[in-house]
């Protein structure tokens, strides 16, 4: 793979590129999905190829070829160079300095998820599903997945790094329906479960079977629950919902390529500007956000990003003040701060973009019970169900699968169909407590979309339960 | 024979099982993505994915590869997957040979476009954008889909498509336009950029709007997005069988205004035509809503069997990436009305809002057909039957039964709106929809203003 990547870089430089890098990638993905006691999907997919990125007179070009042979590597390099030469516009590209990097990295794995038989995976899913079944449950599903990505990056600046990233995960869902009401309950997350880097031990630790009876009971109970009343009140968010809030209203707006407008036509830009660094009040002093590409079991964990920049841990928000952006070498050079380190590509066929790695809300202190005890009148919201945010990442609306009323510091009746809405810096300004390290959980999501052509990034977020005052729940009357 | 069918037959020959089916999904494409009138994310893709489904003792296993020299390994992995599955009593069997309808799907001129031409077409948009910076892309590509199975099925289709998406923007102003067609001759990047720029020029000085229910005129771009998100749970068989669809218990009942008729029409030349679906079932027009009455949802072979009432597939098995959703309409068509223009719809509304485009939709309550999202890149107040001052982006939270329940009018001529976001393997699809006036569009908040 390294020889092919070197051949591609040589071909690009020979064709007139001032910079070139090539990623040779072998990707394997395995899915087991069961539904209503039957195998719904049992698939094992592999994809290999090379993606070549070039700079010609300041213009980028990128081409991907779905083969790993020298002819394909050189052809991709020449096509990328040709595209860059033809690219219209006023091109000026400067890359932040990077010493040539070399090294190897492999995800620490106790039990390789591809060594676990499909039959064992099917059995786990079927058992978890069985645990959810009961009167009123009309659909049950269980899913486990595994992914292995072996990639080699070579650049014309002397970088040559090789990495093998292994991840796996799983999740369960139950649906119930009666009298025109339909409800869903999921564990650990609605969004294709939760994944993490590591071996099969990660899936075993999820406890899908353990949680299944609760998921089945709750989805049926939701059918008879009252609708969550609208109003301005205190909300306590579960860790899983908190990480969605972090993802959408902190992660995406701090991607510096969005700040510079490169996603304007599709996913949108950001309410932030480069000049906000170090001064913008993002939230309350309780808000501390860290980007950490070294988090154990994080889906955004690596030794080098897809530009060869070594993994970093850096503050994005400290005590409510914006302290950092997620950057590439190009955007870091534009702002004159940072060194990149957040460039990631979805396989060999896509150009790297600025993506989240592992972005966490740092824990505060105390327990979930203490958070709730501090609420006289409010709601506790758990497990994301719907999500939407505007093109500058300001106005958002989230819905959760389940909620509980909080009265006089204690959880009360179950509520269904809860939503809440706000404006990003106003909402984070109302953060008055984050629970402590014992309540902090890591969630790995595999469906973060960005780019045209579209790319799905695998990212992780950690958070503890969080409490926000004066939030609009439901639709204002 | 396409390279896709050639690969499919090779893979089928390597397969070992009681039955086997090979799907090849190949792509050769270029995307000249631009921001600030600079191409910044140019992507060329050349790939062919071979997906093998094997049946052994009533058990199914799938495997996929893009290694043309890896077909023997593909057969082994699919076989192992099948061996470790469990018998599937709901398996509908593999499709057999069939007759496929004629539909224009391929254009030589579009297929011949290379990176230089794709970049030049993007440049023609830049030149037409006037004082505005342009954000978006020009893309064209060839998608080959081929199927071969042990039941004698052999099918191949080559699809071309070309799309230009333009956001014209400067500080405090933004406008949107797009064109898509299966022939590059059917899109005009310069005209698209001009439409976006003219819209953007009218968005400066946007003001806020008090939340509430407003009559609204929705441009085709907005209508297509609403229908797309409504379709995920409500217009496909999976959501219907699992009781998440708005149509559950409502088939045969009046659900929308009688001016609303929705079909899935993959054979319409004005859409992005296809001849068969991903299981090899012939494509056909399916009536989903006729004059406001819910008629059906779309089906694939598995869901039709699960329904158990003699149903057959309507030809709506989707690409592998859509498996989570089950069968979905991929050629939505909303019938036009009598209005000659959007201006005429604005006149019908009198006092309300005008919406060009929507952003980041989500399904809030599937069974009730409630969607949320934001407007963007051309939101205006309507006063006295005319488009008036620009508005900031608005959050909407709308039951689709309400949006489509009272429709004062629709424009006569639908336009094709691209719905393919270019994730996974390329699969061009869109919705053919007119502009629509609704008596009620629920605005529940305000957000950012126009601009990049």
Oligomer: heterodimer
What is the total tally of β strands of chain A? 24
What is the distance, rounded to the nearest whole angstrom, between the alpha carbons of the first and last residues of chain B? 46 Å
Order of helices and strands of chain B: HEEEHHHEEEHEHHEEEHEHEEEEHEEEE
| Biggest sheet overview of chain B | 6 strands, antiparallel
Counting H and I runs of at least 4 residues, what is the number of helices of chain A? 10
List low-pLDDT spans of chain A.
none
Strand pairing plus helix content of chain A: what structural class?
alpha+beta
Percent in strands of chain A:
35-45%
The gyration radius over C-alpha positions of chain B equals 23 Å
How does the overall form of chain B come out from the CA principal axes? globular
Largest interface: A-B, 84 and 98 residues
Strand content of chain B: 35-45%
What is the C-alpha radius of gyration of chain A, as a whole number of Å?
A: 23 Å
Distance between the termini of chain A: 61 Å
Query: Low-confidence parts of chain B lasting 5 or more residues at pLDDT below 50?
Result: none
Number of strands of chain B: 19
Give the proportion of residues in helices of chain B. 10-25%
Alpha-beta classification of chain B:
alpha+beta
Task: Characterise the protein shown here.
- The complex is a heterodimer of chains A (477) and B (452).
- Helices cover 22% and strands 41% of the residues of chain A.
- Chain A has ten helices and 24 strands.
- In chain A, strands 1, 2, 3, 4, 5, 6, 7 and 8 form an eight-stranded mixed sheet that branches. In chain A, strands 10-17-18-20-24 form a five-stranded mixed β-barrel.
- In chain A, a hairpin with a 2-residue loop joins strand 12 and strand 13.
- Chain A is globular.
- Chain B has two domains: 3-163, 2-Layer Sandwich (PmbA/TldD fold); 212-446, no CATH class.
- Chain B has ten helices and 19 strands.
- Chain B has helices spanning 3-14, 71-84, 108-111, 115-128, 189-201, 220-234, 237-241, 301-307, 342-349, 400-403; strands at residues 19-35, 38-56, 59-65, 133-149, 154-170, 173-181, 212-218, 262-264, 286-290, 293-294, 331-334, 352-365, 370-383, 386-390, 394-399, 409-410, 415-418, 430-433, 436-446.
- Chain B has a six-stranded antiparallel sheet with strand order 3-2-1-4-5-6. Chain B has a six-stranded mixed sheet with strand order 10-9-8-11-18-17, with helices on one face.
- The longest helix of chain B is centred in the middle third of the chain and has 15 residues, at 220-234.
- Classes of the chains: A alpha+beta (477), B alpha+beta (452).
- Chains A and B meet through strand 2, strand 3, helix 2, helix 3 and strand 17 of A and strand 1, strand 2, strand 3, helix 2 and helix 4 of B.
- Strand 3 (59-65) of chain A pairs parallel with strand 2 (38-56) of chain B.
């Amino acid at each position: 793979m390294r020889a092919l990547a070197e051949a591609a870089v040589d071909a690009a430089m020979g064709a007139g590129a001032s910079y070139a890098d090539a990623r040779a990638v072998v990707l394997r993905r395995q899915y087991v999905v069961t539904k209503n006691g039957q195998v719904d999907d049992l698939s094992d997919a592999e994809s290999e190829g090379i993606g070549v990125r070039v700079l010609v007179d300041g213009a980028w070009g990128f081409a991907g070829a779905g083969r790993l042979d020298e002819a394909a590597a050189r052809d991709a390099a020449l096509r990328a160079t040709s595209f860059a030469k033809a690219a219209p516009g006023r091109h000026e590209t400067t890359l932040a300095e990077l010493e040539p990097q070399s090294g190897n990295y492999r995800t620490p794995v106790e039990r390789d998820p591809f060594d676990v038989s499909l039959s064992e995976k099917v059995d786990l899913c079927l058992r978890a599903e069985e645990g959810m079944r009961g009167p009123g449950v009309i659909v049950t599903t269980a899913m486990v997945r595994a992914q292995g990505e072996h990639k080699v990056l070579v650049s014309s600046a002397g970088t040559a790094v090789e990495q093998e990233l292994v991840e796996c995960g799983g999740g369960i869902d139950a649906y119930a329906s009666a009298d025109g009401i339909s409800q869903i309950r999921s564990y650990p997350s609605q969004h294709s479960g939760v994944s993490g880097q590591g071996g099969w031990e990660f899936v075993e630790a999820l406890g899908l079977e353990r949680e299944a009876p609760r998921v089945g009971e709750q989805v049926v109970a939701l059918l008879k629950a009252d609708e969550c009343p609208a109003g301005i009140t205190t909300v306590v968010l579960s860790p899983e919902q908190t990480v969605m809030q972090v993802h959408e209203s902190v992660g995406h707006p701090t991607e510096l390529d969005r700040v510079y407008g490169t996603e304007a036509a599709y996913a949108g830009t950001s309410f932030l500007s480069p000049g906000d660094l170090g001064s913008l009040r993002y939230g309350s002093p309780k808000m501390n956000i860290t980007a950490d590409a070294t988090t154990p079991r994080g889906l955004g964990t690596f030794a080098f990003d897809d530009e060869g920049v070594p993994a970093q841990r850096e503050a994005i928000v400290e005590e409510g003040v914006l302290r950092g952006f997620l950057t590439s070498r190009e955007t870091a050079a534009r702002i004159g701060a940072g060194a990149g380190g957040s460039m990631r590509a979805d396989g060999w066929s896509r150009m790297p973009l600025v993506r989240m790695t592992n972005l966490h809300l740092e824990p505060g202190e105390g327990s979930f019970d203490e958070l709730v005890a501090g609420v006289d009148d409010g709601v506790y919201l758990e497990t994301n169900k719907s999500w939407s945010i505007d093109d500058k990442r300001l106005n958002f609306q989230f819905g959760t699968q389940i909620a509980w009323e909080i009265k006089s510091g204690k959880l009360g009746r179950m509520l269904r169909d809860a939503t809440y809405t706000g404006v990003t810096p106003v909402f984070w300004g109302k953060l008055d407590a984050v629970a402590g390290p014992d309540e902090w959980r890591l969630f790995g999501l595999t469906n973060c979309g960005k780019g045209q052509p579209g790319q799905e990034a695998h990212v992780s977020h950690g958070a503890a339960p969080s409490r926000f005052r004066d939030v609009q729940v439901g639709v204002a009357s | 024979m396409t390279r896709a069918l050639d690969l499919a037959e090779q893979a089928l020959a390597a397969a070992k099982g009681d039955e086997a089916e090979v799907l090849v999904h190949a792509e050769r494409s270029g995307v000249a993505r631009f921001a600030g009138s600079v191409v910044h994310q140019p992507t060329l893709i050349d790939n062919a994915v071979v997906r093998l489904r094997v049946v052994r003792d009533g058990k199914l296993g799938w495997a996929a590869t893009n290694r043309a020299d890896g077909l023997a390994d593909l057969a082994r992995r699919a076989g192992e997957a099948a061996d470790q599955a469990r018998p599937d009593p709901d398996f509908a069997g593999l499709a057999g040979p069939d007759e496929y309808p004629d539909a224009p799907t391929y254009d030589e001129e579009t297929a011949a476009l290379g990176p230089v031409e794709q970049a030049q077409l993007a440049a023609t948009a830049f030149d037409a954008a006037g004082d505005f910076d342009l954000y978006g892309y020009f893309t064209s590509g060839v998608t080959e889909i081929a199927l071969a199975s042990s039941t004698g099925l052999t099918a191949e289709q080559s699809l071309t498509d070309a799309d230009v998406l333009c956001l014209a923007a400067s500080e405090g102003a933004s406008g949107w336009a797009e064109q898509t067609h299966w022939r590059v001759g059917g899109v005009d990047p310069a005209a698209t950029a001009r439409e976006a720029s003219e819209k953007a020029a009218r968005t400066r000085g946007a003001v806020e709007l008090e939340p509430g229910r407003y009559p609204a005129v929705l441009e085709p771009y907005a209508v297509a997005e609403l229908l797309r998100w409504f379709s995920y749970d409500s217009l496909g068989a999976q959501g219907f069988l699992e009781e998440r669809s708005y149509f559950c218990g409502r088939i045969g009942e009046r659900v929308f205004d009688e001016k609303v008729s929705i079909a899935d029409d993959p054979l319409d030349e004005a859409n992005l035509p296809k001849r068969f679906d991903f299981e090899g079932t012939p494509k056909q027009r399916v009536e989903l809503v006729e004059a406001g009455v819910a008629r059906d949802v779309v089906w694939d072979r598995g869901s039709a069997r699960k329904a158990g009432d003699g149903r057959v597939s309507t030809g709506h098995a989707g690409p592998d990436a859509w498996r989570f959703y089950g069968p979905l309409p991929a050629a939505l068509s909303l019938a036009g009305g009598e209005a000659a223009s959007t201006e005429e719809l604005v006149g019908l509304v009198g006092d309300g809002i005008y919406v060009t485009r929507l952003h980041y939709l989500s399904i809030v309550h599937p069974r009730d057909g409630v969607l949320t999202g934001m407007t963007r890149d051309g939101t205006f107040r309507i006063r006295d039957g005319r488009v008036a001052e620009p508005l900031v982006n608005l959050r909407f939270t709308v039951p689709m039964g309400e949006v489509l329940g009272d429709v004062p009018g629709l424009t006569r001529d639908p336009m094709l709106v691209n719905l393919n976001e270019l994730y996974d393997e390329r699969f061009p699809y869109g919705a053919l929809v007119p502009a629509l006036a609704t008596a009620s569009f629920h605005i529940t908040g305000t957000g950012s203003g126009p601009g990049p």
